[in-house]
Write a structure and sequence with these properties.
alpha+beta, six-stranded mixed sheet, 2 helices, 6 strands
């Protein structure tokens, strides 16, 4: 099931007492998929897939995606640890980069995370491609 498939934008300003994703405007193409529906009795550790790619518009979040991930989680009611975060580098080889978020502490009520990136494994690439074909096509989107 597709939760979101479109351009996710931010304007670089502080709103609702929340820091922006980045202090300059930007946008990314984002696909958020709920992959739990077709697994039957198997419960996935990461039932959601968030695939994001640069648009070339505005500030890049690639170097520090933590605020981006936290905002996505807030906007779509997701838990950061239950999402497979994947940056689509839009290249022929080594196209997908998996991002993991490690909780490092807390400031007030706000958790702090650091990100670790690695290239997607062959099984993850297969999973991503299958999820994109199954979820986007069955929801009338390509």
């Amino acid at each position: 099931m597709t939760l979101f498939n479109g351009r996710y934008r931010w304007d670089g300003t502080k709103k609702d007492n929340l820091d922006p994703i980045a202090w300059f405007p930007g946008s990314y193409d984002v696909k958020i998929l709920d992959c739990s529906k077709e697994t039957g009795k198997v419960r996935l550790l990461k039932p959601y897939l968030c695939l994001y790619a640069r648009t070339g518009e505005g500030q890049s979040i690639s170097a520090q995606p933590e605020k981006f991930a936290l905002r996505i989680c807030r906007d779509f009611s997701l838990e950061i640890g239950r999402v497979l975060w994947v940056e689509d580098l839009l290249t022929e080889q080594d196209r997908y980069e998996v991002v993991s978020f490690i909780r490092t502490g807390k400031v007030g009520n706000s958790p702090l995370y650091r990100s670790i990136k690695r290239m997607a494994s062959a099984r993850e690439i297969e999973y991503i491609k299958k999820a994109l074909i199954n979820r986007l096509c069955t929801n009338g989107r390509t």
